[in-house]
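Dear U.,

Please find below the material for section 3 of the report. The protein was modelled together with magnesium ion; I have listed the sequence and SMILES used, followed by the predicted complex structure.
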Amino acid sequence: MTINEAQQEIDVWIKKYGGGYFSELTNLGMLSEEVGEMAHWIIRKYGDQSLKPSEKEVNIDEAIVDEMTDTLWVLLCMANQMGIDLEKGLLNNFNKKTLRDAERHKKR
Ligand SMILES: [Mg+2]
């Protein structure tokens, strides 16, 4: 699935099942919420925070995928409602970073 296809599929889903898009500002809040949920599990896998007793049965790898996908979902919703072509944006971003950083990280 390309990014353009993902944007189109989400648009169809939102109109069919989601009752329409939330406002841009609501989605901005939801994006922050999903990033926080993703951070919760990444911190527990890679950081110093340990699991709560109620989290012991959670598959952390699956939780990270789920929250990362929730984050992508909201971002794609925002792109749709703002008329942004994220595939074109990503290609432009690759070009920008390549021009700016082609030599920058080779010494790391
Ligand atoms: Mg979530």
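For the text of the report, you could mention the following: The mean pLDDT is 96.

Regards,
Y.
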